[in-house]
Automatic annotation (TrEMBL):
InterPro entries: FA58C (IPR000421), FN3_dom (IPR003961), FN3_sf (IPR036116), Galactose-bd-like_sf (IPR008979), Glyco_hydro_43 (IPR006710), Glyco_hydro_beta-prop_sf (IPR023296), Glycosyl_Hydrlase_43 (IPR051795), Ig-like_fold (IPR013783). Residues 514-601 form the Fibronectin type-III domain. Residues 355-509 form the F5/8 type C domain. CDD domains: FN3, GH43-like. It holds the Pfam family F5_F8_type_C. Belongs to the glycosyl hydrolase 43 family. This is Family 43 glycosylhydrolase. PROSITE patterns: FA58C_3, FN3. Keywords: Glycosidase, Hydrolase, Signal. It comes from the Bacteria. Residues 1-21 form the signal peptide.
Length: 601
């Protein structure tokens, strides 16, 4: 081979390697988080069995992370904030912790509190991975729904409160004397629903009789010398469950309402809610807000966990990015886009799903009176006699399909509306009469996923037929994208008496055009200034729309993702705040250009 041919061949090899390198799928995650959620003891007397994860307390300790979750009989450990391993401690509360709090004091000790009874000792350890905890000798009342915060000077504060009447409070403790109370106790903040629309009780901040939201879930973050007292409202079962913050110069206040509240808010899309959480600083300096999402299908207390990147802007305002927050997001170690949307879109929306059998199919949603709207769907078959399930691709985690059995004869096949390059899957299993009321470590989700371009020739994309993973919200990425129009789930064995699924979600990049820019976007502040109505011209080929708003043109920190509709009504604005709005359309191929920002006084 002469020199020129050798150079040409070398360049070709390098180019081929570079092309392949560009196709390597980055590390990503999705909300709700893919962890082995525990079964709850709530409602066990009523034989209602379901998993839940709520009220997370996450700390960094000696370069690693620990996550404490309500009633989980233990806690989780991670080195990267993505992969979590459950730890069953040797000493713990009988029914698990309730609305836990944890604090890492100068990498020397981890302190923890969360007795379900509302009182008890504060525990501590210098080896949380081992799971040996020591209780303090003193008893401290009002531990429930609390936040333990130890300032740099060693002064210790306990914030608490869970009520639709009483405020959040704080009391000082003596860390060096068994956490005895020092006598300093103070009322801090309460809800002001007549000014803050998002604090109003109910689904979409509406309830026909109850007007007072619940204030709970205190959390404290110190940043740049300021103290950010966070709280949740208006109720954990609602799509508008959110976290907000007041800012103070000292841990005792006085505190001032942050004008861009709520700072963690996710009312639209597949999974809703982003309240009762905690903000933790990653070892690289990036902040993350862990919070609670409302699944609320088997029970209003059925919940999941989420994680969003968190920032402080030039005014010291704290905010999270929840936009497309239940789509695949770049992992925490991404150098420039940690927690941001990957650009992988939903390929499976309204895909034609057929199933092996059907014991029942139920469409369910949270009603404004705190109950459910429930519709059991009639058995429907296509022209080939196959059973149809429209609920598995409807982007609702509350609706679900239940198979006749839980064996390897059960399957789901989805024909997507158009082919695309698949990057990832999310399988959301449903608990139907599981009859489990505690944590069981031997549960497994075993299945395979196949893909096809024509519905006839199939190849295996995912094989978990012998998996030891318990993954009720399994998130699976492929090593490289694969073109397909059909996806097939083949069951082997999952927890429960029957295979049940609420949603199969397929993510990737469509092969068509992204939608055009939205036209005719109109925003109207109502007579009640906490409310606003929206309308716009429908965009051809759009799956849905993403409304963005905020307190300044460059501070559109809030968003609300909507499928299909070209109108919307929200009740979550602050009465006396001027807002700016924009909207974009999206489909399986991408996201449109945003509209010009509108000022609405």
């Amino acid at each position: 081979m002469n020199a020129s041919k050798y150079i040409f061949a070398l360049v070709a090899i390098l180019f081929s390697s570079l092309t392949k390198a560009q196709e390597i799928v980055p590390e990503t995650y999705i909300n709700p988080l893919d962890i082995d959620y525990s079964y709850m003891v709530y409602n066990s007397a009523n034989n209602i069995s379901y998993r839940s994860g709520a009220d997370p307390a996450v700390i960094e300790y000696r370069g690693e992370y620990f996550m404490f979750v309500t009633r989980s009989f233990g806690y989780w450990h991670s080195k990267d904030l993505i992969n979590w391993e459950f730890i069953r401690p040797e000493q713990w509360f009988f029914e698990g912790s309730n609305a836990p709090t944890a604090f890492n004091y100068k990498d020397s000790l981890v302190y923890f509190a969360g007795d379900p009874a509302g009182y008890g000792s504060i525990l501590y350890t210098d080896d949380p991975k081992k799971g040996e905890w020591t209780p303090t000798a003193s008893i401290s009342n009002n531990i429930q729904d609390s936040e333990l915060f130890i300032d740099d000077d060693g002064k210790t504060y306990l914030y608490w409160g869970s009520s639709n009447v009483h405020p959040l409070r704080v009391k000082m403790l003596d860390k060096d004397d068994r956490f005895l109370e020092t006598g300093v106790k103070k009322d801090l903040i309460n809800l002001v629903e007549e000014e803050h629309g998002w604090e109003r009780f109910g689904e979409n901040n509406f309830h026909p009789t109850l007007k007072e939201g619940y204030m709970e879930g205190a959390s404290m973050t110190k940043h740049d010398g300021k103290y950010y007292l966070q709280y949740a409202a208006p109720g954990t079962q609602f799509n508008v469950y959110a976290d907000a913050a007041y800012i103070g110069e000292t841990p005792l206040g006085p505190f001032k309402y942050m004008k861009n509240n709520p700072m963690s808010f996710k009312p639209g899309g597949f999974t809703n809610g982003a309240g009762h959480g905690v903000t933790v600083k990653q070892t690289n300096g990036q902040y993350w807000h862990f919070a609670t999402m409302a699944l609320a299908s088997n029970s209003h207390w059925e919940r999941r966990l989420c994680m969003f990147p968190t920032y402080f802007d030039d005014e010291g305002l704290m905010y999270t990015n929840t936009s497309y927050g239940d789509y695949p997001l770049f992992g925490p170690d991404h150098p420039t886009k940690a927690g941001q949307h990957t650009g992988w879109m939903l390929l499976s929306y309204k895909g034609k799903a057929t199933v092996s059998s059907s014991k029942m199919q139920v469409r369910k949603s949270t009603a404004t009176d705190g109950d459910y709207d429930i519709t059991e769907m009639p058995l429907e078959k296509n022209s080939e006699g196959e059973i149809i399930s429209k609920l598995l691709t409807d982007e609702s985690p509350k609706s679900f399909w239940v198979a006749d059995a839980n064996d390897d004869k059960q399957w789901v096949e989805i024909e997507m509306l158009a082919p695309g390059n698949i990057y990832a899957f999310q399988l959301n299993f449903h608990d139907q009469d599981s009859e489990i009321y505690t944590r069981i470590d031997s549960l497994r989700h075993r299945f395979t996923l196949e893909i096809s371009e024509d519905g006839k020739n199939w190849k295996t994309a995912v094989d978990r037929s012998n998996s030891y993973e318990d993954a009720p919200n399994a998130y699976i990425t492929l090593n490289e994208p694969v073109k397909a129009k059909y996806v097939r789930y083949n069951n082997v064995k999952v927890p429960g008496n029957n295979l049940a699924l609420s949603e199969i979600r397929v993510f990737g990049k469509g092969l068509g055009k992204k939608p055009a820019k939205v036209k005719g976007f109109m925003v109207t502040r109502e007579e009640d200034r906490r409310d606003a109505s929206f309308e716009w011209e429908p965009v051809k080929g759009a799956q849905g729309y993403n409304i963005r708003w905020g307190i300044a043109p460059d501070k559109l920190y809030q968003s609300w993702l909507i499928y299909d509709k070209n109108e919307h009504f929200m009740r979550n604005l602050d009465r006396d705040t001027k807002y700016y709005f924009s909207i974009e359309a999206f489909n399986e191929n991408g996201i449109s250009e945003r509209t010009e920002v509108q000022e609405v006084k």
